[in-house]
Write a structure and sequence with these properties.
Length: 392
Amino acid sequence: MSVRKLTARLLTALILLGGLTSVDAQEYAPVVDPFAFDPDFHWFEPVTDMDLADLKPDKRAHDGWFATYDRLNLYGSRPELAEAGINETKLDSGWGHRYEIGYMLPGKDNGWLFNWTRNRVGAFFSVRQERLNRFNGDQVIGGGGGGGVTAPPFGTIVREEEGNNFGYNFRFYDVSDTENLIGYDSYELNKTWRMEPYHYGGILEPMVGFRWMRLKDTNSFQDYQSSLENPPLVDPTGNFTDLEQLTTNSAITRNDMLGGQLGFRYLKFRERFTFSSDFRVFFGGNYQSSKSQVATELTAYDGAGDGAAVTGIFNTATKPIYSRNEEFYVGFDVRGELGYQLTRLITLRAGFQVIDIGRGVWRGGDGIVIAGGDNDQDYVMLGGTFGINLNH
């Protein structure tokens, strides 16, 4: 076949195909419309009680992707230290966050759940100690001390020796001893299953997973001395006469806890309300380490009165001392929540949570530079939560 005949036949076929398409254009739509994208993220769409009453419990439970956020106010227990007069039974307030992201396979009744929980507890005993050059002009930076001067731009470094403390019109140290200073982080990855709803609509979701918890405990005390005390602080070099020194003895202890967990989640729906409870038992190995050190800040002045100039600042620290240990830990995590469905995909909720690491926690350090604590302690957190649930 010649090239001329082949070209003529191809043109004829294209003309006939174009004619058929124009005739049937009103009856047929394109196979794929790239602009017809409807992810169904109608989070603020109103929902009525009748809409919820028509949904079965398994239809109201999480399906596909979902996420939750909760603000935590968990009180933490104090460390057990080798020091007299410590109130080990007291709980101190802490604040934190809890994030969850999950995916329940549609029609499969199983999925995955990731959880990140963070909580920080801080309690101190502090005594305010005025510096030797207590007053340094009229400089007031910030708004905490009765001044009217605007704070410096973000990123500006304000050296304390060049002026008064931030937000005040005088200079001071807050000489502090820690009573309960600890940070908690937990990362979980769980495989979940959804059981058939019970007769009264309750749903049980068993789970098995991996849990990594990190605890950072800080135990420290500070001591202040000056050349005005009796006996006075004396410079061993003899170059300065007006001196003050802040000494910080500290022990920072880290607990890296790796292991597994077993648990379940129970859900019950009633009109706009959702009752939920979680229970998990975790266990594993705790890989502990502690760092002990003494740091000093020595400041020299050309006098011992208001506005005296700083003639030298000397910061020193001893060589850190490290200790290690390993322990077995076990504990449980339980929480209960009541949610109110605000819109089609948004639920507000509030509840409580208790996290009890029953054994295997090291707090207080090794006792080399400060009164230490045992390697096998417990740590309890309990309090209230408030958050939001997004379900798609």
